[in-house]
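pinging the channel bc i need a second pair of eyes. not urgent but kinda urgent?? the chain im working w is below, pasted from the shared doc
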Amino acid sequence: MNTSEIGALILRITLGIIFFVHGLGKFQGGIENVAGWFSSIGLPGFLAYVVAVIELVGGIALIIGLATRIVSILLGLIMVGAIFTVKLSVGFTGNGEMAGYEFDLALLAMTIYLAVSGSKLFALDQVLFNKENKELKESA
């Protein structure tokens, strides 16, 4: 076990919790309200459902270490969308009424790291797919 894997595990679980809570909040606060807000800023309302599901399910997937790279790419795309459609206009630290894009940028950086590096430590992927990898190596 090396220190970069420990760091990736910490990022993966932290990011998973953050996105899970954000996705859950969209449903608990009324996903219809979020869809209405999406429409009010010029985005299709159904996109709110897509974002909320990706955040909720993606958060769980990151916590358990399932499809970390794919989930990280999807969550990173959501962060890019949030930065460019909403947050960029209020600046890096915000405008007093709305937070800026500094937090979104930090989350984006974490998703990029996990998309590039992955995270194997205590990951369900290792349990599910490691046997296949061993069998392939043994047959080669």
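so The chain has one domain: 3-132. and Residues 3-132 form one domain. — does that match what u expected or am i reading it wrong
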